[in-house]
Amino acid sequence: MAKALGCPAFYSSIDTTEGKASRLQAWREGDGAEGGVVVATNALGLGIDVPDVRLVVHAGMPRRLRDFVQESGRGGRDGRTSTSVVVCSRAVMEEKDRARRGGQAGEKQREESTRMFVSGEVCRRMVLDEVMDGRMDRSGCEEGEEACDVCQPKAQETTQGRAGDGTGDGAEGRGGDEGNIRATFESSQQAGRFRQWQARDDRRQSGKEAERFKGQLARWARRCAYCGVRRRDGEEHAFRECPGQGEKAWQQTEQYRQQIEEAMFGKRRLADFSGCFHCGLPQEWCRRWKASGEDGGRFTMTEGALCQYKGVLVEMFAAATIQAGPEAYEETVKVMRKADGLDEWAASEEEVYEWFGRQIEWGGVQASKLCQLTSQLWQKTEEKKRRG
């Protein structure tokens, strides 16, 4: 791309340290590239502060919204206005999302937050603030902020509506049309507010669900999940030391546990960033990992550290699935897949496991669908126990 544009390139392995410094200086001075243009990977942002970048152009939308924000953040560091542009085909993005939903192998997964941000379904600041700051109470761009492109039309229509409240020449004749326009506008505003409220409420519920599940993990890390879903006394033993090993239900649970263990971890079906490849839980929760950036979006392994909940996720999932029963399992899966825009039933076993391993934003953390499904099935067993 740099050759096609006739400008310098910058990436991690392009040159020596001195050569990189020279390339960086040439770019900053606009030497050899009219307007100071450079084609670069994210290596350009590591430890480099160039304050007067006015335009950042992305060749395709990053899969992770955090990456998009960090890359866009290279512009406007001097406090002046900058522009971030994504060059991509909506048709290509939609086709990739359809392929991903269909479980086609090789399709890298785009975060749900990225899809929402690009689609413009809700205020873009709502999505950004939730991902970057964990803020979940925003309903749109606020007073004193420059409205995003999603909120701008609403702000303009509101201003125009106020300006049209007068009774100047011809107001009487236009009354009917203005009334219809205002009614249509108010209706669209109500629909927009409802969508934003619904999205915000969904995220709030998702946050509660994730926190509840995190607490359950801590409880069942040293207890038997099989006895736990059956509300038995004496659950303070490991699953594999369960006195109920001779029971048919325990044997079914163990068989399913082994199947899921092999399918998800033996064959490494967890998507990138969906969790620890050893325990399957969010990297943010697992002691084996530590955040490598201030925003907590990327993680590196901690030398010598081990997962504190290794094996717990799969034990809970297997125990809850067998105890909840086929009907409850199928209903839960159907509802979740429908919410994802998928067919109620997967076309193959491979597609089932791909869906289990899908990366999602869950209560402000990056997790897998398997975590969320386990949480919901476990809740169903809790409800079943309360009903007796």
UniProtKB/TrEMBL annotation:
Enzyme class, broadest EC rank: isomerase
InterPro entries in the record: Helicase_C-like, P-loop_NTPase
Region (Disordered): 154-210
GO terms for cellular component: chromosome; cytoplasm
EC number in record: 5.6.2.4
Catalyzed reactions per annotation: Couples ATP hydrolysis with the unwinding of duplex DNA by translocating in the 3'-5' direction
Domain Helicase C-terminal: 1-122
Molecular-function GO term, any one: four-way junction helicase activity
Domain of life where this protein originates: Eukaryota
Segment forming the signal sequence: none
GO biological process, one term: double-strand break repair via homologous recombination
Basic and acidic residues bias locations: 171-180, 198-210
Family, as annotated: Belongs to the helicase family. RecQ subfamily.
Protein name: DNA 3'-5' helicase
Species per Swiss-Prot/TrEMBL record: Colletotrichum tabaci
